Amino acid sequence: MSLDLSPPALTATEEARRQIEICNACRYCEGFCSVFPAMTRTKTFADGDLTQLANLCHNCRGCYYACQYTDPHEFALNIPAALAEVRAESWERLARPQSLARLFQTHGVAMAALLVAMLAGFFWALSALRPETGEGFYAHLAHGTMVAIFTPAFLLPLALIALSLRAYWREIGGGAVRPSHLLRAFDQVARMKNLSGGHGEGCNFENGDRYSDRRRVFHQLTMHGFLLCFASTASGTVMHYVLGWQAPYPLISLPKVLGVPGGVMMVAGTVGLARLKLRADPALGAARVWGGEMAFVLLLGAVALTGLALYAATGTGAVGPLLAVHLATVMVLFLLIPFSKMVHGFFRLAALVAEAGRPAPNSGGE
């Protein structure tokens, strides 16, 4: 019987630590994104340090294509993939409950599609109990029923995310937060600063030989489109409960002026991101969660597309089935926020806030 003398395989955290320590000795990519200045603060990396670095990483992949130590070099560095694995593992480990996070990361498309189908059937059946009064959507489903269903479906995921962020903050040793830290972090998020590749020409996400700003543009379209849609819903809520102006609203009204462009931006952004993801090298990310990441992008696009289709179908017989599908996609998006890649926005913002509160690299204080 022969003995296996090969060294044991490293865990995702151990492999990331090995690669980060080599990067910290080289520092060729120091200006690429927030990860590289942050790693220069220390020579040894605890698990919490790696969790923080992984969530600072935006997987633009510029460092990989610039690196002289990638495969076939004996160091075989692949920082984007190493940090992507740690990042995905941190979302799974810190999520509440963890089992749902692991399930969605590996079976995201099937899980989201099944939930949408089930909930669409539920809302379609519920619409059979039509209210006696109501216009627009509310002629198919009473306003009070929608509120009773969606309020807990919105608030519970936010509570779960808050628990996850608290665990994240403790793990990375996040300190006190000042207003200046928040402003700096929100500025970076709004500009997608870390998707510039460190030189302002964009990143190499889908093509190692070409810099492109397309990924940053598609991210911005998706994020700002989502915020516009959220603002549309919020304005409709104020108009309904405070001003007594009930839906349906005309085209020249705040909910529509915000919601229609926001929906178009979300569709354009998610289609662009999905196309880039199909072109990108899966070996430079966390390949095991590719399905979950794609499911999140498709789900966001489906929410926007069904919303626009529902508005376009106003006054026709298609409103009933479209309303059921749209409400199902919105509810699934809400319910899966703590477990899908959408939680990355919360973790990445927390990482940037923590980074803003730490001393500048190679200095003794702020």
UniProtKB/TrEMBL annotation:
Highest rank taxon of the organism: Bacteria
Keyword list, A-Z: Membrane, Transmembrane, Transmembrane helix
Membrane-spanning residues: 103-126, 146-169, 221-242, 254-274, 295-313, 319-339
This protein's name: Tricarballylate utilization 4Fe-4S protein TcuB
Gene source species: Aliigemmobacter aestuarii
Lineage per the UniProt record: Bacteria, Pseudomonadati, Pseudomonadota, Alphaproteobacteria, Rhodobacterales
